[in-house]
Specification:
Blueprint (H helix, E strand, L loop, with lengths): L3 E7 L2 E7 L8 H16 L5 E6 L11 H5 L4 H20 L4 E5 L3 E2 L1 H8 L2 E5 L4 E2 L13 H8 L1 H9 L7 H6 L5 E3 L2 H15 L4 H11 L6 H15 L3 H8 L3
Parallel strand pairs: 2-3, 3-4, 4-6, 5-7, 6-8
Antiparallel strand pairs: 1-2
Helix pairs in contact: 1-3, 3-4, 3-10, 4-5, 5-6
């Protein structure tokens, strides 16, 4: 199957789904389309609540596309690539509607950042998380602010330093990333649907004002995440990272 981003609206809930055959990794074109779709949904008067999900039954998101990382040969290209994650996070931050995260399986790197950027995140017990960036000589610079905001600096630094370990969904719930953890995808989908449709019964103006409160203090993220993208774009050119990435070919 080819990569895609698609949206389906049911009962005033927009289900935005992304997919990539390589474990839902995210190349630049998919990231750009995802940011655009979220922004458009935020402006659509027929939509009251958004659900962010990925295709397939297993991995929610494997993070950055290694194929694109391997082919980055200059800092400007690197910054553009990592800005893709920054743009999605900022689109979620600025979206005036609540975004529910539906995390059905393991999520790595940038995928953890996407989960942390939702306003209410629900998962299965299979949704272990890992920040693997240090393994290849960079770090979770772009997604770090979103993860720190949701889980705290202590938890974020723990998983950033322990870059080889998957942390369980229950651990992620204890740290505030997930609100609920379910035994299987079917139970998760039922809960996500019920939660989203119940939110649609609330005053839209109240939800807009609450969203502003939730994201207060992040007004500088356009500039901050651009700076972080430039850092990642520079580090991906290091000899250490180039050698590491060769092992993934």
């Amino acid at each position: 199957m080819k990569p895609y981003v698609k949206q389906n609206i049911e009962n005033a809930v927009a289900y935005i789904e992304f997919f990539h055959p390589a474990h839902n990794s995210l190349p630049g074109d998919v990231l750009a389309e995802l940011a655009q779709t979220i922004t458009a949904a935020g402006k659509n008067k027929d939509i009251k609540v958004i659900v962010l999900k990925s295709g397939g039954d297993r991995t929610f998101c494997a993070g950055a596309s290694f194929e694109e990382l391997i082919n980055i040969n200059d800092a400007a290209t690197g910054k553009v690539f990592f800005s893709g994650f920054a743009n999605v996070i900022n689109a979620m931050r600025k979206c005036p509607k609540f975004i529910i995260g539906r995390i059905q399986g393991k999520t790595v790197g940038g995928g953890v950042g996407l989960a942390a950027s939702t306003d209410y995140c629900m998962a299965t017990k299979f949704a272990a998380i890992k920040l693997s960036e240090l393994n290849i000589g960079i770090g979770p610079f772009v997604v770090g602010p979103a993860i720190e905001r949701k889980m705290g600096l202590s938890a974020m630094s723990q998983i950033a330093i322990d870059a080889n370990t998957f942390y369980s969904a229950d651990w992620a719930k204890q740290k505030g990333l997930f609100t609920q953890v379910y035994d299987d995808t079917e139970a998760l989908d039922e809960a996500v649907k019920a939660t989203a449709e119940h939110l649609c019964t609330y005053n839209p103006e109240a939800m807009i004002e609450m969203k502003k409160v939730f994201w207060s203090g992040t007004e500088d993220w356009d500039a901050l995440l651009a700076e972080r993208a430039a850092t990642s774009g520079r580090l991906v050119l290091s000899d250490f990272t180039k050698e590491k990435l060769k092992t993934y070919k």
